[in-house]
Fold this sequence. Notes:
The chain is globular. It has helices spanning 3-21, 23-42, 47-75, 82-87, 93-122, 130-154, 161-172, 174-188, 192-223. It has one domain (3-223). The protein is mostly helical.
Amino acid sequence: MTLVREALLVSGKDLRIERRAKVTLSQVVPFAAIVLLLFAFALDPDRGVLTRAAPGLFWIAVLLASLLAVSRSFAVEAENGARDALRLSGLDPMAIFLGKSLAVLAQLLVLEVVLTIGVVVLYDLSLRSLVPLALASVAATIGVVATGIVYGVLTAGLRLRETLVPLLVLPVVTPALLGATRAWEASVDGVPGEAWPWVAVLGAFALIAGTVGLLAFGPLLEES
């Protein structure tokens, strides 16, 4: 079985579990939407401030939702020896990393589409340069997911994993949050020339995070 087929097997398993449990639909999406709605209420007196802050608020909501999605990805294997079964399955650890990353990535990209509609409606935002905005979103999400999966497996066997994951992940993904926000700001302003350097930074961050994840996931899984 090739690496790609094994990765698709793992991602398919996680997505089927999610489809049956509907945690993303019933908890993660409403949570992110509530975050955006609270910001809208807090900044409503000055619509100019709300519009200017929209890119940053969007990515804060996505980042908080990603922590829930990553925690959920490992919580489903916390009982009944499921993690031990995964280790003993004979699957390549790189494939497991890729599969779990693809499953969380798919969920977050759907979430981002929903939240993009939300910021356009709630924040009166006009999206002018869609191509750099979309590429920045995908690259930033890949970097966040890869980082989250690494720290997710690192803390998977710990009792305090729910609180440790945010403490470990948030400082590391700060470059992704900054780059994605700046790329969105340039795209919203209709200045794609200013967005492309940030897209490149986000691509580099995603590449580094993915490479580290591929190399580190196997040993961390054995120790979890």
